[in-house]
Protein backbone atom coordinates (compact mmCIF):
# COMPACT_ATOMS: atom_id res chain seq x y z
CA UNK A 1 0.00 0.00 0.00
CA UNK A 2 1.35 3.42 -0.98
CA UNK A 3 1.19 6.20 1.60
CA UNK A 4 1.14 9.73 0.18
CA UNK A 5 1.57 13.01 1.96
CA UNK A 6 -0.95 15.78 1.36
CA UNK A 7 1.50 17.65 -0.88
CA UNK A 8 2.29 14.52 -2.91
CA UNK A 9 -1.38 13.73 -3.34
CA UNK A 10 -2.22 17.22 -4.57
CA UNK A 11 0.77 17.14 -6.92
CA UNK A 12 -0.35 13.88 -8.49
CA UNK A 13 -4.07 14.69 -8.67
CA UNK A 14 -3.80 16.53 -12.00
CA UNK A 15 -5.97 16.15 -15.05
CA UNK A 16 -5.59 13.82 -18.01
CA UNK A 17 -6.26 16.83 -20.21
CA UNK A 18 -3.02 18.37 -18.95
CA UNK A 19 -1.26 15.01 -19.28
CA UNK A 20 -2.24 14.95 -22.96
CA UNK A 21 -0.90 18.53 -23.37
CA UNK A 22 -4.31 19.89 -24.36
CA UNK A 23 -5.23 23.56 -24.10
CA UNK A 24 -8.66 24.89 -23.23
CA UNK A 25 -11.81 23.15 -21.93
CA UNK A 26 -11.58 20.07 -24.15
CA UNK A 27 -14.64 17.83 -24.02
CA UNK A 28 -14.07 15.19 -26.72
CA UNK A 29 -11.30 14.14 -29.09
CA UNK A 30 -11.92 11.82 -32.03
CA UNK A 31 -8.78 10.60 -33.80
CA UNK A 32 -8.72 9.54 -37.44
CA UNK A 33 -5.91 8.40 -39.71
CA UNK A 34 -5.67 8.40 -43.50
CA UNK A 35 -2.94 6.47 -45.29
CA UNK A 36 -1.18 7.96 -48.29
CA UNK A 37 -1.10 6.10 -51.63
CA UNK A 38 1.65 6.54 -54.20
CA UNK A 39 0.85 6.32 -57.93
CA UNK A 40 4.11 5.60 -59.80
CA UNK A 41 2.47 6.29 -63.16
CA UNK A 42 1.86 9.94 -62.24
CA UNK A 43 4.49 10.22 -59.49
CA UNK A 44 1.87 11.62 -57.12
CA UNK A 45 0.56 10.87 -53.65
CA UNK A 46 -3.15 10.74 -52.79
CA UNK A 47 -4.89 10.65 -49.43
CA UNK A 48 -7.05 7.62 -48.72
CA UNK A 49 -10.22 7.64 -46.60
CA UNK A 50 -9.63 8.66 -42.99
CA UNK A 51 -10.55 5.89 -40.55
CA UNK A 52 -11.46 6.39 -36.89
CA UNK A 53 -8.79 5.03 -34.56
CA UNK A 54 -9.54 6.24 -31.00
CA UNK A 55 -11.60 8.74 -29.00
CA UNK A 56 -11.56 10.30 -25.52
CA UNK A 57 -14.17 12.09 -23.44
CA UNK A 58 -13.16 14.41 -20.58
CA UNK A 59 -15.22 15.78 -17.73
CA UNK A 60 -15.22 19.50 -16.91
CA UNK A 61 -12.25 18.97 -14.55
CA UNK A 62 -10.17 17.50 -17.36
CA UNK A 63 -10.25 13.86 -16.23
CA UNK A 64 -10.68 11.21 -18.92
CA UNK A 65 -14.00 9.54 -18.18
CA UNK A 66 -14.28 7.41 -21.31
CA UNK A 67 -12.08 6.30 -24.17
CA UNK A 68 -12.44 3.82 -26.98
CA UNK A 69 -10.44 2.08 -29.67
CA UNK A 70 -11.68 1.24 -33.16
CA UNK A 71 -10.82 -1.88 -35.15
CA UNK A 72 -9.39 -1.46 -38.69
CA UNK A 73 -12.85 -2.05 -40.17
CA UNK A 74 -14.19 0.98 -38.29
CA UNK A 75 -16.15 -0.92 -35.65
CA UNK A 76 -15.65 -0.10 -31.98
CA UNK A 77 -13.25 -2.62 -30.43
CA UNK A 78 -13.46 -1.60 -26.78
CA UNK A 79 -14.64 1.15 -24.42
CA UNK A 80 -12.98 2.01 -21.11
CA UNK A 81 -14.67 4.14 -18.47
CA UNK A 82 -13.04 5.75 -15.43
CA UNK A 83 -14.18 7.08 -12.07
CA UNK A 84 -12.16 9.29 -9.70
CA UNK A 85 -12.11 10.07 -6.02
CA UNK A 86 -12.54 13.54 -4.51
CA UNK A 87 -8.83 14.27 -5.00
CA UNK A 88 -8.91 13.34 -8.67
CA UNK A 89 -7.05 10.04 -8.35
CA UNK A 90 -8.22 7.11 -10.44
CA UNK A 91 -10.56 4.99 -8.31
CA UNK A 92 -12.32 2.58 -10.68
CA UNK A 93 -11.86 1.40 -14.24
CA UNK A 94 -14.09 -0.74 -16.44
CA UNK A 95 -13.25 -2.00 -19.92
CA UNK A 96 -15.90 -3.52 -22.17
CA UNK A 97 -14.99 -5.28 -25.40
CA UNK A 98 -17.27 -5.53 -28.39
CA UNK A 99 -17.44 -9.27 -27.75
CA UNK A 100 -17.52 -10.89 -24.34
CA UNK A 101 -18.17 -9.63 -20.83
CA UNK A 102 -16.76 -6.47 -19.28
CA UNK A 103 -13.37 -6.74 -17.61
CA UNK A 104 -13.43 -4.79 -14.36
CA UNK A 105 -10.46 -3.67 -12.33
CA UNK A 106 -9.83 -1.34 -9.41
CA UNK A 107 -6.42 0.34 -9.81
CA UNK A 108 -3.93 0.16 -6.99
CA UNK A 109 -2.39 3.31 -5.57
CA UNK A 110 0.66 2.61 -7.74
CA UNK A 111 -1.51 2.65 -10.88
CA UNK A 112 -3.04 5.96 -9.87
CA UNK A 113 0.43 7.37 -9.26
CA UNK A 114 1.69 6.17 -12.63
CA UNK A 115 -1.31 7.80 -14.32
CA UNK A 116 -0.40 11.17 -12.80
CA UNK A 117 3.36 11.08 -12.39
CA UNK A 118 4.36 12.37 -15.84
CA UNK A 119 2.27 15.54 -15.70
CA UNK A 120 3.27 16.09 -12.09
CA UNK A 121 6.91 16.32 -13.02
CA UNK A 122 6.20 18.25 -16.18
CA UNK A 123 4.38 20.86 -14.09
CA UNK A 124 7.32 20.99 -11.71
CA UNK A 125 9.74 21.20 -14.69
CA UNK A 126 11.93 18.64 -12.96
CA UNK A 127 12.18 15.16 -14.42
CA UNK A 128 14.16 13.65 -11.54
CA UNK A 129 12.98 14.54 -8.08
CA UNK A 130 12.23 12.73 -4.83
CA UNK A 131 8.72 11.66 -5.85
CA UNK A 132 9.96 10.09 -9.08
CA UNK A 133 12.76 8.24 -7.33
CA UNK A 134 10.37 6.99 -4.69
CA UNK A 135 7.89 5.61 -7.23
CA UNK A 136 10.28 4.76 -10.03
CA UNK A 137 9.24 1.09 -9.92
CA UNK A 138 5.90 2.04 -11.49
CA UNK A 139 7.55 3.66 -14.52
CA UNK A 140 9.28 2.34 -17.62
CA UNK A 141 12.79 1.26 -16.65
CA UNK A 142 14.34 1.94 -20.07
CA UNK A 143 12.83 5.31 -20.97
CA UNK A 144 14.59 8.68 -20.83
CA UNK A 145 12.70 11.96 -20.34
CA UNK A 146 13.65 15.58 -20.76
CA UNK A 147 13.01 18.35 -18.22
CA UNK A 148 9.44 18.78 -19.49
CA UNK A 149 8.73 15.06 -19.18
CA UNK A 150 8.75 14.34 -22.91
CA UNK A 151 10.13 10.95 -23.87
CA UNK A 152 13.45 11.50 -25.65
CA UNK A 153 14.62 7.88 -25.86
CA UNK A 154 12.97 4.52 -25.31
CA UNK A 155 13.25 0.87 -26.17
CA UNK A 156 10.60 0.02 -28.73
CA UNK A 157 10.07 -3.34 -27.03
CA UNK A 158 11.46 -3.96 -23.52
CA UNK A 159 11.93 -7.62 -24.45
CA UNK A 160 14.12 -6.58 -27.39
CA UNK A 161 16.59 -3.92 -26.20
CA UNK A 162 18.27 -3.85 -29.63
CA UNK A 163 15.40 -1.70 -30.95
CA UNK A 164 15.49 1.94 -29.86
CA UNK A 165 13.58 5.14 -30.69
CA UNK A 166 14.61 8.76 -30.14
CA UNK A 167 12.39 11.86 -30.25
CA UNK A 168 12.67 15.64 -30.64
CA UNK A 169 10.04 18.26 -29.73
CA UNK A 170 9.11 21.85 -30.52
CA UNK A 171 8.49 24.57 -27.92
CA UNK A 172 4.88 23.36 -27.55
CA UNK A 173 5.97 19.80 -26.69
CA UNK A 174 4.80 18.42 -30.02
CA UNK A 175 7.02 15.67 -31.41
CA UNK A 176 8.64 16.89 -34.64
CA UNK A 177 11.24 14.18 -35.33
CA UNK A 178 11.61 10.50 -34.55
CA UNK A 179 14.40 8.07 -35.38
CA UNK A 180 14.27 4.31 -35.08
CA UNK A 181 17.31 2.07 -34.65
CA UNK A 182 18.01 -1.64 -34.61
CA UNK A 183 21.33 -3.01 -33.42
CA UNK A 184 22.65 0.56 -33.43
CA UNK A 185 21.77 1.11 -37.10
CA UNK A 186 19.23 3.69 -38.27
CA UNK A 187 16.21 1.99 -39.85
CA UNK A 188 13.82 4.91 -40.36
CA UNK A 189 13.44 8.64 -39.73
CA UNK A 190 10.09 10.38 -39.27
CA UNK A 191 9.10 14.03 -39.43
CA UNK A 192 5.80 15.35 -38.10
CA UNK A 193 4.13 18.60 -39.21
CA UNK A 194 1.08 20.13 -37.55
CA UNK A 195 -1.90 22.40 -38.06
CA UNK A 196 -3.56 23.81 -34.94
CA UNK A 197 -6.91 25.28 -33.89
CA UNK A 198 -7.55 28.55 -32.05
CA UNK A 199 -6.58 26.96 -28.72
CA UNK A 200 -3.23 25.80 -30.08
CA UNK A 201 -4.20 22.12 -30.07
CA UNK A 202 -3.10 20.25 -33.16
CA UNK A 203 -5.94 19.07 -35.39
CA UNK A 204 -3.89 17.74 -38.32
CA UNK A 205 -0.59 15.86 -38.29
CA UNK A 206 1.32 14.99 -41.46
CA UNK A 207 3.60 11.97 -41.07
CA UNK A 208 6.66 11.74 -43.34
CA UNK A 209 9.23 8.94 -43.49
CA UNK A 210 12.77 8.60 -44.81
CA UNK A 211 14.48 5.22 -45.19
CA UNK A 212 18.29 5.03 -45.24
CA UNK A 213 18.25 2.46 -48.06
CA UNK A 214 16.50 5.02 -50.31
CA UNK A 215 18.34 8.28 -49.59
CA UNK A 216 17.41 9.75 -52.96
CA UNK A 217 13.72 9.69 -52.01
CA UNK A 218 14.15 12.01 -49.02
CA UNK A 219 11.08 12.32 -46.80
CA UNK A 220 7.83 11.06 -48.28
CA UNK A 221 4.29 11.27 -46.79
CA UNK A 222 2.82 8.06 -45.43
CA UNK A 223 -0.16 9.18 -43.33
CA UNK A 224 -2.29 12.12 -42.20
CA UNK A 225 -3.80 12.09 -38.72
CA UNK A 226 -6.77 14.21 -37.75
CA UNK A 227 -8.11 15.20 -34.34
CA UNK A 228 -11.70 16.42 -34.16
CA UNK A 229 -11.87 18.38 -30.90
CA UNK A 230 -14.98 19.72 -29.20
CA UNK A 231 -14.93 22.06 -26.19
CA UNK A 232 -17.16 22.81 -23.23
What spatial form do the alpha-carbon principal axes imply?
globular
**Computed CA radius of gyration, to the nearest angstrom:** 20 Å
The H-and-E topology, N to C, reads as HHEEEEEEEHHEEEEEEE
Mean pLDDT: 81
Instruction: Please state roughly what percent of the residues sit in beta strands, choosing from under 5%, 5-15%, 15-25%, 25-35%, 35-45% or over 45%.
Output: over 45%
What's the story with the biggest beta sheet?
A: 14 strands, antiparallel
Number of domains: 1
Distance between the termini: 37 Å
Approximately how much helix is present in the residues? 10-25%
Beta strands, count: 14
Q: Which regions have little confidence, pLDDT < 50, spanning 5+ residues?
A: 4-8, 122-141
Q: Quickly count the helices.
A: 4
Structural class: mainly beta
Provide a concise account of the structure shown.
This protein has 232 residues and is mainly beta.
SSE topology:
Elements (H helix, E strand, L loop, with lengths): L5 H7 L3 H4 L6 E14 L4 E4 L3 E8 L5 E7 L5 E9 L5 E8 L5 E3 L3 H16 L5 H5 L8 E3 L5 E7 L2 E10 L5 E8 L2 E12 L5 E9 L9 E12 L1
Antiparallel strand pairs: 1-2, 1-3, 1-14, 3-4, 4-5, 5-6, 6-7, 8-9, 9-10, 10-11, 11-12, 12-13, 13-14
